[in-house]
């Protein structure tokens, strides 16, 4: 009798979920790696000036999804969608809203991904920024250190704060414990000599490595989620990661002009709150180049942390039975459309890396151009692990794309505030709450620089209907 059948039988009979030692084939472990504000600025996505050897190595042994889109260009709403497999609220309080619903009536709330795996015998552990708040505590306004963001989900959560005093300090921390105050003034980028632990992600990695050691000895399958903060603002990384970029010439910024008639544009308010020494990257090309170099250094620093995790997985002999997922919670503009940040519904905010490596799937190293969404990760992992999939999920499994990367994908839905967008193979439609529409033709070199909604009413109407159908999921 196989592992899946035994699990289903145990649940049907009301028995405790079976551990991997009780079945003839061990359940696969899951390692979910979340990277904050990571656009597809990686070698495996064709960006040659970026040093990302460890993520590239993961891609060479797994499946890289070249057109993966998140549900929202903001951390909280995007992570809600990935962790629940469902479309949901559009703001950073999404998971705390769900926690309040759980407190009122648990049975009516669709399970989270870690809660589902925990139900079937997995030990679930979170380290770093996996949900919106690093460590999963802190309240929707960071004001309640005892409020849990994802009840019933994790056996254990960790957010090592070190010199940064508390998780929020580490979230926006620079070297040697420097934290952002309400008065502002923190530099937008920084680099100093020192080990990886000079910045918070080094501590996150060390804790994750300790957890891997412990989990490897229990005999039970594990679901370990590790969330790295960089390259989130401020862009801080040890000097060894910045040095390769200190004099690097980067390609020109594509379509750097502020668009006209496109109301998804915004003025980069998050970025502008940091100390920029009086400089504006849209007006100062040298400053813009320096910002981009420091973002690149932060990516390489995050890549090094991924490498340490994967090396430990291999050293412990766990790589042969561990599914690895690397996911970026959304993209980030580096001057495209004159935006420095996320929060738009343009391609740069919504497209992010997704790499899945499953030891049981063939054709490693080939990428796929299928359009997929973050909500697809939950059902994919269920199928790969041989677990049933909750009927309440909105996403669909990607296992067929792991078997055959040439298969087509599906349209992708995203949202911000009350506005929505749909991405197809050829078009992006952005529908604003006030009725304004933006339609872009991705078969044209103009891409998302020319709004053709007024001259393409049939396409616009068809895509509006598709948005409504996809979001009528309750």
Topology:
Elements: H1 3-12, E1 29-35, H2 53-60, E2 63-69, H3 75-84, H4 94-104, H5 113-119, E3 123-128, E4 137-138, E5 144-148, E6 156-158, H6 167-171, E7 189-192, H7 200-215, E8 222-228, E9 235-238, H8 239-242, H9 269-272, H10 285-315, E10 322-328, E11 333-334, E12 340-341, H11 347-350, E13 354-357, E14 367-373, H12 377-385, H13 399-403, E15 412-416, E16 419-423, E17 427-431, E18 437-441, H14 457-471
Helix pairs in contact: 2-10, 7-10
Task: Tell me what you see in this structure.
- This protein has 474 residues and is of the alpha/beta class.
- The protein folds into two domains: 28-409, Alkaline Phosphatase, subunit A (3-Layer(aba) Sandwich), CATH 3.40.720.10; 418-474, no CATH class.
- Helices cover 29% and strands 18% of the residues.
- It has helices at residues 3-12, 53-60, 75-84, 94-104, 113-119, 167-171, 200-215, 239-242, 269-272, 285-315, 347-350, 377-385, 399-403, 457-471; strands spanning 29-35, 63-69, 123-128, 137-138, 144-148, 156-158, 189-192, 222-228, 235-238, 322-328, 333-334, 340-341, 354-357, 367-373, 412-416, 419-423, 427-431, 437-441.
- An eight-stranded mixed sheet has the order 6-3-8-1-10-13-2-14, with helices on both faces. Strands 15-16-17-18 form a four-stranded antiparallel sheet, covered by helices on one side.
- Strand 4 (137-138) and strand 5 (144-148) form a beta hairpin.
């Amino acid at each position: 009798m196989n592992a899946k059948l035994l699990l289903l039988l145990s649940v049907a009979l009301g028995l405790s979920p079976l551990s991997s030692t009780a079945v003839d084939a061990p359940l696969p472990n899951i390692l979910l790696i979340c990277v904050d504000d990571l656009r597809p600025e990686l070698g495996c996505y064709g960006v040659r000036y970026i040093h990302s050897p460890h993520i590239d190595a993961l891609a060479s042994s797994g499946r890289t999804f070249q057109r993966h889109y998140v549900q929202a260009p903001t951390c909280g709403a995007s992570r809600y969608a990935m962790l629940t497999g469902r479309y949901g609220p559009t703001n950073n309080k999404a998971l705390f809203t769900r926690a309040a619903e759980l407190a009122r009536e648990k049975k009516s709330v669709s399970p989270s991904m870690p809660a589902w795996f925990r139900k079937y015998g997995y030990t679930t552990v979170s380290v770093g920024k996996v949900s919106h708040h690093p460590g999963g505590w802190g309240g929707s306004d960071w004001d309640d250190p005892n409020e849990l963001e994802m009840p019933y989900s994790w056996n254990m959560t960790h957010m090592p704060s070190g010199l940064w005093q508390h998780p929020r300090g580490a979230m926006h921390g620079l070297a040697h414990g420097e934290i952002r105050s309400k008065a502002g003034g923190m530099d937008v980028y920084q680099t100093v000599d020192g080990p990886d632990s000079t910045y918070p992600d080094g501590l996150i990695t060390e804790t994750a490595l300790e957890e891997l050691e412990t989990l490897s000895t229990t005999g039970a399958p594990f679901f370990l989620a590790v969330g790295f903060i960089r390259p989130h603002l401020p862009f801080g990384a040890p000097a060894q990661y910045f040095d390769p970029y200190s004099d690097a010439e980067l390609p020109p910024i594509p379509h750097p002009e502020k668009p006209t008639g496109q109301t998804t544009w915004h003025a980069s308010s998050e970025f502008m709150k940091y100390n920029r020494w009086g400089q504006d990257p849209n007006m100062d090309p040298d400053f813009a180049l320096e910002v981009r170099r420091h973002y690149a250094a932060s990516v390489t620093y995050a890549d090094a942390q991924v490498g340490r995790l994967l090396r430990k997985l291999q050293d412990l002999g766990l790589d042969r039975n561990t599914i690895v997922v690397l996911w970026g919670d959304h993209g980030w503009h580096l001057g495209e459309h004159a935006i420095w940040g996320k929060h738009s519904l343009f391609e740069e905010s919504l497209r992010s890396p997704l790499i899945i490596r499953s030891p049981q799937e063939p054709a490693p190293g080939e990428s796929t151009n299928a359009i997929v969404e973050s909500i697809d990760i939950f059902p994919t992992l269920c199928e790969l692990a041989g677990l049933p999939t909750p009927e309440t999920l909105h996403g669909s499994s990607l296992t067929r794309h792991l078997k055959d990367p040439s298969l087509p994908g599906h349209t992708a839905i995203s949202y911000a505030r009350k506005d929505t967008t749909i991405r197809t193979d050829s078009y992006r439609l952005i529908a604003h709450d006030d009725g304004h529409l933006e339609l872009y033709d991705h078969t044209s070199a103009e891409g998302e620089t020319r709004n053709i909604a007024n001259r393409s009413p049939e396409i616009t109407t068809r895509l509006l209907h598709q948005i409504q159908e996809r979001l009528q999921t309750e």
